[in-house]
Amino acid sequence: MKFKATFILLVVFLCLLAFILLFDVKDVGKEERGDKLVDLSSDDVERIVFKTEEGTITFTKEGEDNWLISEPIEAKADKLEVDRIAADFSSLEIDRVVEEEPDDLEKYGIPLKEISLKFKDKEEPVKVLVGMENPLDQKFFAKREDETRVVLIASSHKTLFEKKVFDFREKSIFKFETDNVKGIRLHSGDIRWEAEKSEEEWFLKKPVDSLAKKNDITSLLSSLSDLKAKEFVSEEKNDEELTKFMLDAPEHTITLQMPLENQEVTFFIQKTEDKLYATTSLSPKIIEVEDTILSKLEKDPHEMREKEIADFYSWEVNKVSLERGDLGLTVVEDEDEDKWHFDSAEGEEADKDKIDEFIRKIEALQAESFIDPPLNLAEFGLDSPAAKVTIWVKEDEEKSKEITLFIGKKLKDEDEQEDTKKAGSEKAGTEAEKEEKTGEEAQDESEAEEATLKKEFVVVKNARFDYLFKVDAEFLEQLPEKKDDWKKTEENTEKDSEK
């Protein structure tokens, strides 16, 4: 009996293979690449009906750019997904013609699926009937309802044919332009902070008043704007459902102010067991989302402070001034000659390499830590600074930005060591965590802490900010003590001549 069943299956397979080969023989010379089954403009598509074995999905255009799903549910559609259907099937290329006048459509599996496009100014929709997949090349048999010929269309349409309603839904609960956000309030567990945007910069306002790392803020905003549903758990949320998913008092709330749009929206996010749920004050839906956003929500605001002392690009600097004791130096760049000259009556040439190195040092200067108000500037030697550095950064042909730094005193060893030990203790964590560390890890941490204790620090103030920066005192080695330190030497002049 087993042999007989196997034999029957073999015969069926051979018949199918002969059938397919017959089509290939009949199609020799009938390739019509460039010919199209549908050749209309996707911009004119107003309605799409997509029928499969599992049901019907209907898309209706709203306005010029947006799509709605009207069947089997009412929801916003993913514009890119629906636009792709409109584009692909309003300009549908034929791979090749299989039969001009078929007498039996069932042998091609037509119709297993149907894509119907309603075009503006056309009374009747254009319907494309899709059959089975050709086993030889994975392309699909298809025909227009108002034509007789059966053709093959590209295998790339397979991903569309396999999509479900969820795949076509707009999965964002609130899309917004990140540039339009001017204020943020965040509450995440024990973490609370507020930030405001001024021109192109973000400033933390609470718990500290400080320039923020722009990338940290924009990354958070991008993640919120791109927050997408893994699953829709509620279409019309109510108090009962908010309580069920613990979104009535969530662990994470983020409020965004968009004054240009006269709008404020709050995101509510809560992790329950191993799932992360989200909704907004302007959305009726509750969705499940990926938990990758948590790392951004739980970031310590102190880690978001901008550590760069001055924000500029070294190649845009065209003037530098230094005051140190009785020494006063100003150098100006001559862009045409790619040289630096002292801004004096003599106009002597300065050492370009030293000036460029000095500027790059300031550009790379970063805080090891911060000193926040209230401040006694005299305590840090800033009532009468050891040095003052001013640089001019070219913004356009007529305008330059001025950045002024005041250099204070070196910190006392015992003060800095106390701060460093305290920071090291906090970083080490609990005693249990310490015990878990291997001997090698403990040794590495000890060596790193010892190296930090050996470093010397100096206090620097940027005139823009009320707070101070503690930076590596090695920077002081770049400050000239006399004019000759920045003068172009005969040795360097000879090198330039050789170049």
Keywords for this entry:
nine-stranded antiparallel β-sheet; 29 strands; 3 domains; alpha+beta; 25% helix; 499 residues
Report on this model:
- The chain is of the alpha+beta class.
- The chain has 3 domains: about 25-170, no CATH class; about 180-300, no CATH class; about 315-425 and about 445-490, no CATH class.
- About 25% of the residues lie in helices and about 35% in strands.
- It is built from 12 helices and 29 strands.
- Strands 5-4-3-2-8-9-10-11-7 form a 9-stranded antiparallel beta sheet, sandwiched between helices. The protein has a 9-stranded antiparallel beta sheet with strand order 15-14-13-12-17-18-19-20-16, covered by helices on one side.
- A hairpin with a 6-residue loop joins strand 9 (about 125-135) and strand 10 (about 140-145).
- The longest helix has 25 residues, at about 1-25.
- The chain is elongated.
- Residues about 20-35 and about 420-435 have low confidence and may be disordered.
